Amino acid sequence: MSEIVVGIIGAGRIGKLHLNNMKHMSNVRIKAVSDVFADQMGDLGVERMTKDYQEIIQDPEIQVIFICSPTDTHTTIIKEAARAGKHIFCEKPISFSDEETLEAYEVVKEAGVKFQIGFNRRFDRNFSKVRSIVEAKQIGDLHVLKITSRDPEPPPLEYVLRSGGLFADMSIHDFDMARFITNSEVIEVFAQGGALVNPKIAEVGDIDTAIIHLKFANGALGVIDNSRQAVYGYDQRLEAFGSEGSANVKNEAASRIEMFAKDGIKEDNPYHFFLERYNDAYIQEVSDFMTAIEQDKEVTCGFVDGIMAQRIAIAAKKSIDTGMPVQVEQLNSLVLE
Ligand SMILES: NC(=O)c1ccc[n+]([C@@H]2O[C@H](COP(=O)([O-])OP(=O)(O)OC[C@H]3O[C@@H](n4cnc5c(N)ncnc54)[C@H](O)[C@@H]3O)[C@@H](O)[C@H]2O)c1
150 and 214: one domain? Predict the structure, then answer.
């Protein structure tokens, strides 16, 4: 099997994670990494480091580009990479604007390259099992989906400013999870939120805590609770409740030991954050993408998944701004062709 030659744009938290995971994949050769701070990053153990990502776009040997730079750079790079004939793995969200995302989608469709969006949680063994349980109607008809998704600590304010807000940056994973588990579109959103963790987050126009109600096309209802700060770790739970039962995903921790003592029962806190909690899922999403390229198959989560999660985020923001439930714009068949 020949190697797939990869270039990575953006070597921050998520770029380095993918880089380190791909170093262990025998069918992948990471040829170059680009970051605006490439000269200050030391040796990342790759063939070439560059400050100018155009060197990656223009390298004829590179077949696949990982876009791991901040969200406001994504659509420009997607269009350039697609026009250069590269397959693209892009971190979430695609952008902050539906127009920009649709424009990039057209370019990707036209170029005929593969595109996968970084919704890593779909590749978590427990969440994907719940999807199968729901699909097989093992819990009967799905009535309610409950997602708890809380970070251990808020990101720095500089990150918040460039993040697009809680819904576009963080809840977007939960919006995708909601679509994934139910296999149904979200048609209406009602969101309430506030800056309860850090008032400075309100000063920069964002929130850090939210409750989001969802109505699905198949009639099911959903609720997501988000916080930027759970003091006990990364809280990632889910319950699918239906007419014949419920399927629950609990937190993952370093061990599942319950220790009984005089002063109470103790167990490990949940894993601290996404790097620990989802590393297997990050590896799986990239392996899946490489298989899709090698075998010329459909990717597991593509552009449309990115568009729809982003539309739910846009509707949630509008709901916060208006205090009203908001309909989620659906894709028409012309866009999908
Ligand atoms: N899937 C996930 O679980 C997950 C987790 C974290 C972040 N993300 C997404 O990944 C993206 C990056 O987030 P992050 O947390 O790694 O941010 P980060 O700030 O840690 O890293 C971004 C890196 O991109 C570099 N960069 C900026 N502009 C660049 C350019 N023009 N060319 C090359 N490099 C450039 C920065 O110098 C920085 O090193 C965001 O879109 C974010 O939403 C996804």
Answer: yes
